[in-house]
Write a structure and sequence with these properties.
heterodimer, A: 430 residues, Rossmann fold, Neuraminidase, 2 domains, six-stranded antiparallel β-sheet, five-stranded mixed β-sheet, elongated, B: 182 residues, alpha+beta
Amino acid sequence: MKIYNPLSIVLFALLWLSLVPAAHSQLRIEIIGGGANQVPIAIAPFKGEEALPQKVTAVVAADLVRSGLFRIVDSGGLTAIPAEPAEVQYPAWTARGADALVIGSVSPLPNGYWDVRFRLLDVAKQAQLTGFAYQVTTQQLRNTAHKIADAIYEKLMGDVGVFGTRITYVVKQGTRFELQVADADGYGAQTVLASNEPIISPKWSPDGTRLAYVSFERKKPIVYIQSLLTGSRTVAANFKGSNSAPAWSPDGARLAVVLSKDGNSQIYLINADGSNVTRLTNTGTIDTEPSFSPDGQWVIFTSDRGGSPQIYRVPVNGGAPERLTFEGSYNVSPRYAPDGKSFVFIQRNGGRFNVAVQDFASRQAQLLTENGIDESPSFAPNGRIILYATEIRGRGILAAVSSDGRVRQRFSAETGDVREPAWGPILQGQ
Amino acid sequence: MRKLIFSMAALALLAGCASQDTKEQAGAAIEERKPSVGDITPPVKPDTAPVAKPIVSKPIVANPLKDPNNILSKRSVYYDYDSAVVKDEFKPMVTAHARYLTQNRPAKMVIQGNTDERGSREYNIALGQRRADSVKQMLLLLGAQEAQIETVSFGEEKPRAPGKDEASFSENRRSDIVYQGE
């Protein structure tokens, strides 16, 4: 068994593109590229899962493939399905080229629940790496599969998995706008808000229970906060002029918003209930698109105070902003990485708008996309993937790129434009 | 083309044309102030005696805001790419609205700033706001009052032209004046 940790992936990685079959989902996902050092993993059918409407192992395999870091070894043609380590014929899996093997079972419980258990095995060492058992409802089976994929990812990659998280985005269908929330693999899409006026800039509260967004339903941009648990919502900012660009503080108690009530577009801090409005920036120019640092001490934002839109950083308690970007005449839409060490943003190059990441320490920027019309980038909560909006043949779709630029995914709806994505947090206790 | 339309409107004003559109007569009944901006339609005289009137005695006065021949019916200011400068060709129209606001203190308007679809949605909200604010500043300098004007931005979210070519983009780089109640 080789040691798979992020360092070895980086050390041995060479640019190596392969096409992997797209998974089928409500948002169709297409994966382009992959890590050079993909882990060959076999996933045996779980004993008893043929009774389920959706096979757990199919969801696990699709998750792992989508990360670009795994290669699924064929597990077809088994004479007997191994559900326990004692039943595993290790030499056969070695012959198939698998370094890791997933086995498991699904069985109905008297109370209507399902008992789902899995084990991740090291084929070379013939030893268990991890394993869990879950008792879940039929509705929770997909989420359980994502948890299994997260457990496998964490054990083999030494990093937090995000397969069990959710994303939000806006679908424009004709003149109708829908704010939706879906699983990170595009399944289970639910409409949070439908409107005949635009909706933009949805942002997850740090605990994943609320969305802040901007709606134009009252003929001007107003910032709302809506609970995903109850559906109820409150007005966070509705002052004279425009109210937009909400960003949550890491503790979920405050928002940075952009208001034009005192003249031009400036950044203010408000409590999540809309009270205690404090001005953070003070210029005669545009200051917008705030994003809090993970430690809550800084806000990065877009400003054209220097003549062109560039990215700046200001202490959350006020002080002199510091310019961060210098290359190019249009750098916008900054968002902090979860570890606070870098930020993602959009850089215009000629007529193109590309996703770039800049490291705070080195101040070096790296372009992750090219030839795009890319917008609204945000990090997955493990920092490994950047979700953004782009266009294909004039149609809005979502896309994702690994933070090293190697793995790419596209999410497209059956019809309509998809835009304004944001990746939700890892929910505690799930 | 816009310039041409504007010139035609100016000629129409010089010729003193007033709308004969019957749809606007309801608006005319409450329009008691002196019509503005070269609108030389005779003012309405209140009826004082309950006597039989000649059928032709009541001239039609259009709501100047709705009269297609009145410059006040022109509501859009267009901009160059990434610019919020009100170009000279739109200054007579903005001046006319400033005069209307000055002469009609209860009147209120919203100026809606718009951008083309290129670039960040949120930055475009700010850019549209700046465009609307540039019109507002001109109106204030010409005598309008702060309380009469709210500026908001639609950014790139409500394009009037759906195309992805320069013709559509230039149509969408725009501020629109909307009076309260419209």
